[in-house]
């Protein structure tokens, strides 16, 4: 008995010490915080399952940030109680993760993992543009990041534009500045100042004449040309305006056809970068759950798609992709409009997607608990039927229920019409 009590007390102390790193915030938070405070905040609802799954990760994040002396404070708030705070941060879904830095709000839309959230904290919590003062720091940054945006040169209008873009896009990627002599010897820049992106084992220099607006260019180039893609990355790629060439493969034990699709997409991405990089991202996704919802059906693995995330559209190959030329023809057809786009976000598609989502949600319920499924479907339908019945019953009639009274009311007008008719005949 004594040992059990000691164990319970120890667990309570451990939970208390971990919880001490995460503050519970109320509606008075905005008035009480200091102007220079940096906060990472989770908005949750008591009934939200995903919020409960995130809770232990959230406490680990709070503990780790405190242990390394981070200036970032970690908090959480029940958005169903502290509605004023939720409205201030424009919270729509749960769990919502945001950072507040110098009264600027940054929304996190990445995977709900410890690594993903801490990476977001590191980006937003630190300098907007980080200085690389040595070749060693530059090489370290190259190892740490798949994509690196670097401003090279002295102060200029281009640097101001670069900093302005960084302030908005820091939630997505890192930004650096460096002197010319810090870069590796193999990096040759035709002019300075310059903005350079390092990715896919090479580098590309921004040109306003060729690439247009700097911020839009950065938004287009912030992903590797070929990579493993999850649902969060796919959603973010849609914001870039590019289409996504996607090989959909199994999560484990890839079949020979899956490996061939994956290698083919990677080969075209690398070999035809100059031709397609402005219009396409390339990658592969494991599993078909996300794509099933997009196409509203069961997708057979492996498959090849071209996705247009800006309007939830997708393109399918007209025939089996066997060779590199087949894939090139398919991509060219997408670009010139000869390939048909399916799906979309029109009214009909939205209604179909609503019914599909309801079907997907209720099917497991009916299979595991038929009575509960009937109740969930029957109750709303009964309310709709009752409402329609009451509306029909309350509709007004053109003639009163008393037919004689109705005829009497109409008689004077009929007499007037007869008189007018007789006058015309005379």
TrEMBL record:
One of its GO terms (cellular component) is cell surface. This is protein disulfide-isomerase. It is an enzyme of class 5 (isomerase). It comes from Channa striata. The chain crosses the membrane at residues 369-392. Residues 6-126 form the Thioredoxin domain. GO terms for molecular function: protein disulfide isomerase activity. The keyword Transmembrane helix applies.
């Amino acid at each position: 008995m004594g040992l059990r009590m000691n164990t319970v007390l120890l667990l309570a102390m451990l939970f208390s010490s971990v919880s001490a790193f995460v503050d519970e915030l109320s509606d008075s938070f905005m008035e009480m915080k200091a102007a220079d405070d940096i906060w990472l905040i989770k908005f949750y609802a008591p009934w939200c399952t995903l919020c409960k799954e995130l809770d232990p990760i959230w406490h680990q994040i709070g503990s780790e940030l405190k242990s390394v002396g981070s200036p970032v404070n970690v908090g959480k708030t029940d958005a169903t109680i502290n509605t004023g705070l939720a409205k201030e941060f424009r919270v729509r879904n749960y769990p919502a993760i945001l950072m507040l830095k110098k009264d600027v709000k940054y929304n996190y839309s990445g995977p709900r993992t410890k690594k993903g959230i801490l990476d977001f904290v590191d980006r937003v919590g630190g300098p907007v543009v980080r200085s690389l003062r040595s070749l060693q720091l530059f090489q370290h940054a190259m190892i740490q990041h798949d994509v690196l945006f670097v401003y090279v040169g002295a102060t200029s209008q281009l640097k101001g534009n670069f900093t302005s873009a960084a302030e908005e896009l820091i939630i997505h990627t890192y930004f650096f500045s460096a002197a010319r002599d810090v870069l590796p010897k193999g990096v040759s820049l035709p002019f300075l100042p310059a903005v350079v992106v390092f990715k896919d084992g090479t580098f590309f220099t921004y040109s306003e004449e060729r690439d247009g607006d700097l911020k839009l260019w950065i938004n287009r180039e912030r992903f590797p040309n070929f990579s493993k893609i999850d649902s969060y990355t796919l959603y973010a790629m849609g914001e870039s305006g590019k289409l996504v060439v996607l090989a959909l493969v199994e999560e484990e034990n890839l079949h020979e056809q899956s490996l061939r699709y994956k290698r083919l997409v990677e080969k075209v991405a690398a070999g035809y970068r100059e031709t397609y990089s402005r219009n396409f991202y390339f990658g592969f996704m494991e599993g078909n759950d996300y794509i099933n919802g997009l196409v509203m059906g069961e997708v057979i693995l492996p498959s090849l798609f071209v996705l247009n995330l800006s309007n939830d559209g997708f393109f399918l190959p007209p025939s089996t992709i066997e060779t590199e030329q087949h894939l090139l023809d398919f991509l060219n057809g997408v670009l010139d409009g000869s390939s048909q786009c399916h799906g979309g976000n029109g009214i009909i598609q939205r209604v179909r997607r609503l019914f599909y989502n309801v079907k997907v949600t209720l099917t497991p319920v009916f299979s595991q608990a038929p009575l509960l499924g009937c109740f969930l479907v029957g109750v709303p339908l009964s309310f709709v039927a009752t409402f329609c019945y009451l509306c029909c019953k309350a509709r007004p009639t053109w003639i009163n229920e008393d037919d004689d009274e109705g005829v009497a009311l109409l008689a004077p007008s009929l007499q007037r019409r007869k008189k007018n008719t007789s006058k015309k005949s005379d």
